[in-house]
């Protein structure tokens, strides 16, 4: 390939933060019309690297060349002028503005000095169509779910007519259907000659979409390989060793029912949901987005109310809509939205890890600070949280390491019933195995685990039983041995409402 095709080159980039060498000599190049995947463990330096190109950070050392010329990207405007658009891992939209306002933020079309709303909204409509998302340009961003936010970000990047499009884990929050749509868009952009930098922890996406892969380990580029490279080789390059068993589930003896949910109903959201999770069990909940899985577990945890039904922990009925009561009874929830609900970003790793235990300890009137510290250090070590120290602010951890802290705080809390909602989103393949091993330890010690995941191989690989939800109801239950992707999908797209109505009707209700 000739030099003419080279859009961008990075040479010997170094970047340090207090106590951390984030990048320690990275080389990278991007050609016209290619998808170049950046691969590396949580905290390897991927997001930091792309922030050098968007102008968010400045390198301590090294050079960035665009079209063969050295450039200094000092801020978002410089990046925009150079044709570089970035979709960040943490979204960058303004919640109180509309979709159209966000897309054209700072460059709204004007007429007679006024913002030309009509044109702006019509232009936004075209872009939204192009990314295939069904959302009104007039909707407030605050009201959108996470997948739609992502699509709006992409529409915004398209509106910039970028020559370089950087996407930091765009698929982490998308459903497989949405991922397919995204791939169609990205392939079209590649066709048009755009160079795409693509970050993902889903290895199967690499062969499906990528052309080349640059692997980063501990802030250094350790190799560049074609996207057709076998997955286990990619893993070896990335983590420095191979992974024997991706789903190391060990099923212990099953004990008594710890969590019992009976006829739980929230009108219009979920209906007549009943199930049990026993001590030692991992029960997975599969289903399509919108099936009501998150809504059910939030109600079980007391975060949301319900209209009918019961939640019992070890046989004792819980007061509804009361998180404190649920926690006191031993329920923990690792939420889907880690930034919004799981973490206090401006506190340290240690403080965040102690959030749940501290509360219990303070209530009991005894705070064992030394014990807290040791426990925090142990769990951070087990999860391999990459940090400068326990005193680092959670805000400055990498995305995957933040997720590990959310999980860690509940693992420390001595929960009887741990509910995990999309626990390994954004987690690298090596760290996933560590989390699975911790789930094994928990259940071996007699805890019950309820796990929602949209990653079907993960649900199938780690659950002893799988509940499948569709349209707010439990559409069916599968034992681990019978739970195949096909069986789960058949239930997930079924229509349990109709079936129920028929049987109810035939019973004369
Ligand atoms: N503003 C900052 N202050 C201090 N440390 C930082 C800052 N930004 C990043 N780091 C550190 O730099 C390292 C690299 O982080 P980065 O976010 O680039 O990782 P990543 O490869 O994107 O990981 P992930 O897959 O988890 O998103 C981490 O150790 C992180 O804690
Ligand atoms: Mg990152």
Automatic annotation (TrEMBL):
Q: Which GO terms describe its molecular function?
A: ATP binding
Q: Which SMART domains match?
A: AAA
Taking every annotated instance into account, which residue ranges of this chain make up the domain ABC transporter?
Answer: 8-243, 253-496
Q: Which PROSITE patterns match?
A: ABC_TRANSPORTER_1, ABC_TRANSPORTER_2
Query: Keyword set for this entry?
Result: ATP-binding, Nucleotide-binding, Repeat, Transport
Q: Which PANTHER family match?
A: CARBOHYDRATE TRANSPORT ATP-BINDING PROTEIN MG119-RELATED, GALACTOFURANOSE TRANSPORTER ATP-BINDING PROTEIN YTFR
Protein name as it appears in the record: Sugar ABC transporter ATP-binding protein
Species source reads Streptomyces cylindrosporus
